[in-house]
Amino acid sequence: MKDAFGLPQSLLVLGGTSEIALATARRLIARRTRTVWLAGRPSPGLDEAAAHLRDLGAEVRTVAFDALDPDAHEDALGKVFAEGDVDMVLLAFGTLGDQAHDERDPGAAVRVAQTNYTGAVSAGLVCASALQTQGHGSLVVLSSVAGERARRANFIYGSSKAGLDAFAQGLGDALHGTGVHVMVVRPGFVRTRMTAGLPEAPLATTPEAVAAAVELGLRRRAETVWVPGTLRVVMSALRHLPRGVFRRLPV
Ligand SMILES: NC(=O)c1ccc[n+]([C@@H]2O[C@H](COP(=O)([O-])OP(=O)(O)OC[C@H]3O[C@@H](n4cnc5c(N)ncnc54)[C@H](OP(=O)(O)O)[C@@H]3O)[C@@H](O)[C@H]2O)c1
């Protein structure tokens, strides 16, 4: 169960090698999280991530999970919930793709959309239903500012995040009053392997800063979290710029 401050004792990470998710897990283990499930594509990286969190004192297990295989989600995630209550699910998987390449390769673009959007619709619904059966828990979804307004430079990724964000908001409304809390997290540019080698955007931040914002959001039972918080104002202005002006911005 969560403590009086809304922090989880048990955590399920979807996308178990995500740098943002692992920074969040480390932070929560330092508070009160004792059990962690890392769901992800089996790899040495997933095992290393589990071993590292074990060294911090948590009981950690891994489970095979592929966002691109929605038919297997019910079984894979059902196994986790069958082992005991999960206080928090962190939906962290995602892929940036390669916009220039993917515009010429529709199959690759579809894989970005299927990972980030339809994979999340499937896994999100499976987890939401299990959390509802428990009667408590938080589903924390890593969306992105990229979903706020599609940019020329990454509209394939951005559109998939827009879909994910809208889905998570609607799910949060559907679960309102059930005891299950959905929190949409919208980071800007975060320095992780996902953005390695890309020119840094203004207000760039770190996985640790996202983790801190997630903790604060849980304590406040927030529905939306921007990281850094100033992006809420910046994006509200950008969202309303006329198309012709927005198109000319170097973003
Ligand atoms: N970095 C940023 O600037 C930024 C900003 C805003 C939002 N976000 C979002 O935050 C989340 C975490 O990103 P990150 O920066 O921590 O990136 P990351 O370290 O590259 O993590 C991405 C995660 O997604 C997993 N993944 C990719 N395809 C998958 C699939 N088909 N099935 C299961 N797992 C899959 C990866 O697993 P493998 O190890 O198997 O590849 C990895 O665990 C993503 O949703 C990302 O879109 C990131």
UniProtKB/TrEMBL annotation:
Its EC number is 1.1.1.333. InterPro entries: NAD(P)-bd_dom_sf (IPR036291), Sc_DH/Rdtase_CS (IPR020904), SDR_fam (IPR002347). GO terms for molecular function: oxidoreductase activity. Keywords: Oxidoreductase. Pfam families: adh_short. It comes from the Bacteria. The keyword Oxidoreductase applies. Belongs to the short-chain dehydrogenases/reductases (SDR) family. NCBIfam families: PRK07904.1. This is Decaprenylphospho-beta-D-erythro-pentofuranosid-2-ulose 2-reductase. It comes from Streptomyces edwardsiae.
